[in-house]
Design a protein that fits this description.
The protein is an all-alpha fold. The protein has one domain. About 70% of the residues lie in helices and about 5% in strands. The protein has 19 helices and two strands. Strands 1-2 form a two-stranded antiparallel sheet. Strand 1 and strand 2 form a beta hairpin. Helix 5 packs across helix 11, helix 12 packs antiparallel against helix 13 and helix 16 packs across helix 17. The longest helix has about 30 residues.
């Protein structure tokens, strides 16, 4: 393992900012752990339906503050996308070829998920599973794909938004929420909230693009974003009626994520500020080959981990249904602290199931070139191709 870590360290391009990769890895792992902690599948009267501990114990809302890390992913996406596009233009690469390279790794593994779950849904229905159960499971697996669609759209728009100031999309989110919740109520103009799906995530994406342009005084910017974002979010939750949870809660009247609200965006600004403040410490820690090897391996399989983590949880839950009784933390209603502790004990089992999914499907993310590069030719020049992809 030490030899592998040293090889990965030496094979990494010297100009690669390892802290950016660490932020991406933390964002992906945050989403995975967040879903595993706040999503329950309750077996009841022959059906399985989703539930959330946040629905029964609102005091657990701080869990969503830690693990709802999508803003950091869009921050990193904006930074990497803007730098990549500038580099492509300098090399004379066309926009179409650049976009194909950027989005290919996003959507290759999606095809595998869709095929597997189409077959699985057909088999479940043929074996007598209720349609409601199949729909609930399919929604859990496919609902995270909205994130990839938004990310791909913003990536495609990089040439247009790379120099857009983040205050412009932030102003759009503010005015949409004023119309939805302030001026006219929540019912007549509820559809306007879907504008925030693009505008809300465009805010951290534009911040990342500004970072790529070489924005100065990163630490000062980080502190301003952290303090102003945290203060604005607190004020919106305490006095403006926004939910405290930054994740969706079944049955809640308002969700901060579906679609994004002003509170979700200001919370994302605070997260982006914290991410910028972590750059220095992360760069120092990542000089250690073993630490960097772990971050590198997560990044090379980021989409596989993201796309299959819900399947891993569902697989463990399905196997648990073979038991004669409902297993705490797996099939029981998440209405007490005992469920939370039991769910923590299940996390390693979910991780093992995810590792099995990774072993079966990670090659779809790396593509043919990635498979031959890592396995057959351990030369830094070839490995750089994997990084650049």
């Amino acid at each position: 393992m030490r030899e592998l870590a040293r090889w990965i360290d030496s094979a990494t391009p010297p100009d690669r900012d390892r802290a950016v990769d660490a932020l991406r890895a933390l964002a992906i792992l945050g989403v995975v752990l967040g879903h595993w902690l706040v999503t329950a599948l309750v077996a009841d009267s022959g059906t399985v339906h989703p539930a959330s501990p946040l629905q029964y114990r609102p005091q657990l809302a701080p869990i969503s503050w830690v693990f709802q890390t999508l803003a950091v992913f869009f921050l990193v996406g904006g930074q990497v996308g803007a730098k990549s596009y500038a580099s492509a233009r300098a090399r004379g690469q066309t926009y179409g070829r650049w976009l194909g390279a950027r989005t290919g790794r996003l959507f290759r593994p999606v095809a595998a998920v869709l095929v597997v779950w189409t077959v699985a849904a057909g088999l479940m229905l043929a074996s007598g599973a209720r349609f409601e159960t199949v729909c609930a499971l399919g929604k859990l697996v496919l609902s995270p794909l909205w994130f990839l669609l938004v990310f791909a759209a913003l990536t495609a728009a990089t040439p247009l938004v790379a120099r857009l100031h983040p205050l412009w999309p932030l102003a759009v989110v503010l005015h949409v929420d004023l119309i939805r919740f302030g001026l006219y109520g929540t019912s007549r103009y509820e559809w306007l909230g879907w504008i925030n799906v693009a505008a809300g995530w465009l805010v951290p994406y534009c911040l990342g693009a500004a970072w790529a342009r070489g924005a100065r005084r990163i630490r000062t910017t980080g502190w301003v974003l952290l303090l102003v974002g945290a203060a604005a979010t607190s004020a919106l939750v305490l006095w403006a009626g926004y939910p405290a949870s930054m994740a969706g809660v079944p049955g809640a009247g308002i969700s901060n994520l579906n679609p994004p609200t002003l509170a979700a965006v200001t919370f994302g600004l605070a997260q982006c500020g914290a991410a910028l403040l972590l750059l220095g410490p992360l760069r120092r820690v990542l000089r250690r080959p073993v630490v960097w090897a772990g971050v590198a391996l997560v990044n090379l399989s980021a989409m596989t981990v993201f796309l299959w983590h819900q399947t891993a949880m569902i697989a463990v839950t399905a196997l648990g249904l073979l038991a004669d009784t409902a297993l705490p933390g797996l099939h029981t209603v998440p209405d007490g602290s005992g469920w939370v502790f039991a769910r923590l004990a299940w996390l390693p089992v979910f991780a093992v199931a995810l590792l099995v999914c990774w072993a079966a499907f990670h090659t779809y993310e790396q593509g043919k070139r990635g498979r031959t590069t890592v396995v057959r030719e351990r030369r830094p020049t070839r490995t750089e191709e994997v990084w650049n992809a």
